[in-house]
Amino acid sequence: MISFKLTSGGSNGPRTGVITTPHGDVETPCFMPVGSAATVKAMAPWDLEEAGAEIILGNTYHLLLRPGVDVVKKLGGLHSFMGWKRPILTDSGGYQIVSLTERVKITEEGVEFRSHLDGTPISLTPEDAVRSQRDLGSDIAMVLDEPVRLPADGKKVREAMERTIRWAGRSRDARDREAPRTALFGIMQGGADRGLRAESAERTAAIGFDGYAIGGLSVGEGAEELHNTAAFAAPLLPSDRPRYLMGVGTPSDILRAIGYGVDMFDCVLPTRNARNGWLYTRRGPMRIKHAIYRDDPRPPDEACKCRTCSLFSRAYIRHLYLAGEMLAGMLITRHNIYFYIGMVRQACAAIRENRYNEFAKALLDSMNEGADGGAGEESQ
What we know:
Distance between the termini: 31 Å
CATH superfamily of the largest domain: Queuine tRNA-ribosyltransferase-like
Strand content: 15-25%
Oligomer: single chain
Number of domains: 2
Number of strands: 16
Radius of gyration: 20 Å
CATH architecture of the largest domain: Alpha-Beta Barrel
CATH class of the largest domain: Alpha Beta
């Protein structure tokens, strides 16, 4: 199980805290690098430790497909299997309801997937999701939920929210029966409807969980709708438990959401966009393939202390990327993860010193200037 202690701030606005788990403490706000298949792409465990990662994320759906939860359990659980000694949060597979829409059938009992690898049918109930995460050895497990791609019909959003609550109750019962040592987070749904969000928060909190997530965002809605919903939703969740905004987002998304009182974040952007030659910097996103970097001797981010920025020039990384060398993705990923984690740690310090608003505004203003002519950010 886990415990959570607020160290500064309160129920609303930016705050810091500590999550205590069987595999160590996690300072919040925190960013969790995504390791869906028991690896954060292009990063060895020691690279993650050097970057300052305190917790990473795995995905139940992907691990069910390969190598199989039974294999991971036999080999000692995820921590032993992947050589990571610190905390792990696992998603239940609910996000794949949105990302694999054409391969999914939803019933009251659970979800039936057809594998995106070979079409093999996979059944996942709320109880299965809890058992699988128990067998993976997760420090924090997520309930199975039903997110809805936005925009969506109001009736569909309500039906998904209601089903998510019913599944949450079943998940909590399964955890209490079969996985009492596993921490379990409930998930708020409700799309962009404030009434549904408030109802979902109240009814999910009444079931009682170790933490609470804001789900169903970054699924097709615009940026302002995302932030309007998250800003409304975060204070509705219990203030004495961690609050997790799932799958969001860009550096600016995270800075804004910390201001709403969110404690935990994950996103594939720093790793996925690294493989496409995008670096996140204090001057905005940098697309390294641009010709302006052909003979640029400067590090990618002159204020960054990661090994990529300490040892290599923009020109060299551009050369690696255009030559198709795998080292390009490795170096860019290393920097991006270091940047995300460093940004959130700086946010923690600013909150403790009661200067978060000034810190966030200065960094957002700097990033909005753009490193190479206002290059935009690719979506998740």
